[in-house]
Amino acid sequence: MAELEAVIGLEIHVQLSTRTKMFCGCALSFGDEPNVHTCPVCLAHPGVLPVPNEEAVRYALRIAAALECEVAPRSIFHRKNYFYPDSPKAYQISQYDIPLASGGRLGEVRIHRAHLEEDAAKTIHLGESGRIHGSGVSLVDFNRGGTPLVEIVTEPDLRCAADAGAWARLLRTTVRQLGVSDVNMEEGSLRVDANVSVRPAGSAELGTKTELKNMNSFRFLERGIEAELARQGELVEAGGTVVQETLHFHPEDGSLTPLRSKEEAHDYRYFPEPDLVPLAPSEAMLREARESLPELPEARMRRYEGELGLSADHAAQLVAEPEAAAYFEAVCEAAGALEPRVVANWVTGELAAALRQADGGGPADSKVEPGALAALVGMVQEKRISHGSGKQVLATLVVDGGDPAEIVEREGLAQISDSGELEAIVAAAIDANPDAAEQVRSGNRKAIGAIVGAVMKETKGRADGGEVNRLIGEKLGL
Amino acid sequence: MSSELLELTVAQAVARIAAGEVSRREYAEAWRERAAGDDLNAYLLRTEDGAGEGEGPLGGIPVAVKDIFCTEGVETTAASRILAGYRPPYTATAVRSLREAGAGVLGKTNMDEFAMGSSNENSAFGPVMNPWDRERVPGGSSGGSAAAVGGGLAPCAIGTDTGGSIRQPAALCGIVGLKPTYGAVSRYGMIAFASSLDQCGPLTRDVADAALLLEALQGHDPCDSTSVGIEGGAGGPGREDLKGLRFAVPAELGGDSIEPGVREVFDATLKRIEGLGGEVATAPLPHAEHGISAYYVIAPAEASSNLARYDGVRYGLRAERAGDLLEMYESTRAEGFGDEVKRRIMLGTYALSSGYYEAYYGRAQRVRTKIAADYAAAFEQFDFVVTPTSPSVAFRLGEKTDDPLAMYMSDFFTVPISLAGLPAISIPAGLAEPEGGGPRLPVGFQIAAPAFAERRLLDAAHALEGEIGFDAKPGGDGDG
């Protein structure tokens, strides 16, 4: 049997971080008391009408521009009809045959379409199952109902779970960079579903796909796809056929179970929403969307590696966190002549470690001002303080903030620049460690560590490591 | 004093109140008493704020409001059991506009459930009787509003028209009914039946009053994206002749479906138009006759979606015995909706179903486009298209309840204009004996105009109204 190839496409829902909902004036919220952000429109009282949120249209156009999509001159809203308590009108206003945007690309993956719609309310089912069947009581929180969503559908261009995860991360960073969404998978402001199928390698036809839902982290997305690919592969190799269905991912054990067919058997009876006129963005809106695009992750990655000479690893780390990248650039700017590569080392290395130690947070919202970090790195580079002292100053900065020069002064961390003083300390250290000195003389260079350690202890880290090494070698006749 | 007050038209009453000749409170009180004596089942509810506030163009006028308009804190049911007891948390823009113009709300009027019907027999709260003959229907769906004005229980009213629901009851009750261009008046707060067709308009004693109410109602509303208002407003009609105006009679008008008495009044009215200097000729409107078929796909399709929100979850009726979610939906809707509403929900659901959409909804929309194109072509040569408003005078209660198709044909002349989104007015043109005999009953004459040409339409209707001089009243067999 021919080898099997995976074919994966993603369907992504991005909650926009507009001030208000898609079709009414209620504020967006997360984690507030249930049902406080509601009005007659988003509760679907009789007689109400939707009015599109212009800010949401602008945000969606920005996403369309970033994904290099074609924007339809007149896109149409449709009603997607279904009965469920999370849908107070019993239909969702979405887009169907003429979406806002189509035919784009991000990285290696083609974008099929991107359209605007409204989010459903949140249902909570009390009872063992956690689903509506068999639950004792079901509650609805309409705060989320009507939140603007952009749904992005890719072409089935991905070939493995890891690539799907990596691409989803790129999309997240891209959307975050645009400032139009929190794109937080745990909170549900980014939701990624996967369409998965297998086919003989090289075949041009698509196999029967299944749709995977409820993978609320990138890791779960990859695990879900892997599990489903394995299942389909075994099934096909055993001569079976894949049945088109929707599968629910269970984060507890990584398993996938089919959604009940009763919940699935929908005929959505799409028809054009008569309460809304076609969405026809003006030339000015389209231009604004294009011109407001920030540097996107792909371009930034190229610049960091190419122009700034960062390692691929550091570049990727910074690009993945737009706030960290902005911080990095602010430090570079304040640092003037310092090499960006060195700054990147500090931001992704020492600073990240110090922040972790002081229970987390990103660099941008830490007490370490970009100017302070620039000054600190400068002092280390100019050997005015040792690297170790630098880390010590950083630990203070993370907790209290302030000016690194003052901390160096206050804590007496300035490097010992008087070579006579350092020579004396080195000589004393050799005397105090005769065994080590003997070993070094007889060729065991590693033994030098004990003597260096003694010097550092004596100087409280204020000595330049390279200089100390040089002096010890000189004295031991190497 | 009070009976004299009740004879005033709205325009006259506003002028007298503004001049201090008539006490606002006294005027409102007189109408409140009349409304309290409702013996037609025209009102579902009477309110206490009839006098209104402020000095606007409708200062002091109590308006009867169809129970399809949401009124904050005041029960609004669309004559459906499923909304019994429902008190909206907000007020419809049309009602707010009337209040801003100084008017008050006299009461909420009966109607066909969710505006689905042509006889007002589909109300969950009992049928309305025609003021001219209590054994006959007032028309529908704005039957309560039409009967209230025609029966002297209100000086004026507002209703909604989806396929003829203002014009047909106005015709059957002997009053003026105006359906504005789609988009002229906000639909916000008007309980939706068929969103692409529903439009609010006035039911009044004469054309000048219709213009006065339209002026207050029309305008763009930020809460309704499909509303645009009428450029330059509705104006006040002043024309006395029809010189230079061209009136088209559809070539496909047909003969057999129109009652002979109605036909007679219609032909006599065409003569009057010519007498006023207007020109009358036939024009082809070949697709209009398919209007009813297209309408009974499009309107139920939209209704099936619009009425899906009545699920017992958030407001209104919730069935007592409900084991699970599906059963709650099913029993709530089974108990809450009447037969005609259920029939249309099923028709509409079917028409939108996958596999049938193109054959029904898609095709009906194409017919709609062709009908609109027919009118556009006619209006290149004509100023107006005229027809009888209804093929018959008021029919007997129960006469057509077992025959939905016969009932649907009552809207034969009004529906195509609704599908084209055009403005049209029905004015009383005379009396005619019903088929099968009996006292003579009002006949309506319908005039349709190009989109947003309300000013021209009202002007012509006013001139013709003056020439007709309809002054018959229910109760006496007048000579109008």
Task: Describe the protein in words.
The complex is a heterodimer of chains A (478) and B (480). With 478 residues, chain A is α+β, with helices and mostly antiparallel strands. Chain A folds into 3 domains: 286 residues, no CATH class; 117 residues, no CATH class; 57 residues, Orthogonal Bundle (Arc Repressor Mutant, subunit A), CATH 1.10.10. Helices cover 41% and strands 17% of the residues of chain A. The radius of gyration of chain A is 30 Å and the shape is elongated. The mean pLDDT of chain B is 95. Chain B starts with a helix and ends in a 12-residue tail after the last helix. The longest helix of chain B is centred in the C-terminal third of the chain and has 24 residues. In chain B, strands 1-3-2-4-6-5-10-11-9-7-8 form an 11-stranded mixed beta sheet, with helices on both faces. Chain B folds into 2 domains: 333 residues, Amidase signature (AS) domain (Amidase signature (AS) enzymes), CATH 3.90.1300; 75 residues, no CATH class. Chain B contains 15 helices and 11 strands.
- Superfamily at the CATH H level of the largest domain in chain B? Amidase signature (AS) domain
The total of beta strands of chain A comes to 14
Order of helices and strands of chain A: EHEEEEEEEEHEEHEEHEHHHHHHHHHHHH
Described by its quaternary structure, the protein is heterodimer
Number of domains of chain A: 3
Strand-pairing-aware structural class of chain B: alpha/beta
The residue ranges of chain B in which pLDDT falls below 50 over 5 or more consecutive positions are: none
Kindly state the percentage of residues in helix of chain B. Answer: 25-40%
Mean pLDDT of chain A: 91
What is the distance, rounded to the nearest whole angstrom, between the alpha carbons of the first and last residues of chain B? 26 Å
Helical coverage of chain A, percent range: 40-55%
* Pair of chains with the largest interface and how many residues each contributes: A-B, 30 and 44 residues
Reading the helices and strands of chain B in chain order gives HHHEEHEHEHEEHEHEHHHHEHHEEH
CATH topology of the largest domain in chain B: Amidase signature (AS) enzymes
Number of structural domains of chain B: 2
Please report the total strand number of chain B as a whole number: 11
By CATH reckoning, the class of the largest domain in chain B would read Alpha Beta
- Count of helices of chain A? 16
Structural class of chain A: alpha+beta
